[in-house]
Model the fold of this input.
Amino acid sequence: MLIWSVLIALAGAFCMALGSALQERDAVRAPGKSVARFSLLVYLAQRPRWLIGTLAAAAGVSLHLIALSGAPLTIIQPIGVTGLLFAIVLSMAFTRRRVRPGQIGAGVAVMVGLVGVIMLFPHTADTPRMTVGTALVLAGCVLGVGAVALAVARKVRPGIRGVILATVGGSALGTTSAIARVVASGTAADPMAVFSWLTPIAIGVALFGGLMMQNAYRTGHFSAAYAILLVADPVVGAGLGALLLGEGLPSSPPEQAAAAVFAVVAAAGIAVLAKSKNQNPEAARGVRSRGEGSAADPEPGQEKRDVLTDGESPSDLRTGEPTDHRA
Done:
């Protein structure tokens, strides 16, 4: 049973990475400003590739939950974060770029840091409880921080923008996880508990988190954004569990020191992935053509060359002419 749970967890990690990488392909090509509103989700929901990516991500989450039913969290959670390496490779392959050893090294650093932090949090089987008022306060805090982040994100370069938006998005989804854990626990005892006010609150926060993540993908720093999502979601969820659901924090000084070290390792990996040289070239051209970032004006004759078509390579955007790839 254990080996099957491990294989299912690997399949889930791959599906989540594949789904997010497919979503990025349409997010960077979406029209509008660098930081879009909810109309972005409406636009993306009409794109078949983005919908396939969403279904793949949902399948990945489902497979992860199935794997947890047959193996301990201490085994499945580390396997789940291997999705970051899948995401890096898939994103680079989709945009016809070479994977750099530094990117893989940074991805491994994020994975090690995340697994270390997660394993130091105590895990409890106690039934979690949360009032509607507490959930509303959490939702209000997420929206308030998100509003500030959106204002700041419009004024900074793409790498920093992606980090800010992904942090808010991952935190929103971590908050969703904490609320959803309460709903799921209550539903196990009483199926009617799913119809409580906690459910629409969780859905609303999840939609806001999804919007932030799609905007983070639009910056072209997909690997960094996905890494932050993998870190922020479980850490915020575990933190809320400790503060509000009685699940506890690392208690001894050695555990706290180790958690801080692992957090620094993960942050260092994210910083490497957010560097401009790792940016998706499609997003870089979109920024220049919209007059955002450091390049205020598009290059002459390239005003409409915002994104790659399916038959082009990144070099085509630099020359302005399509390359005959059959040669």
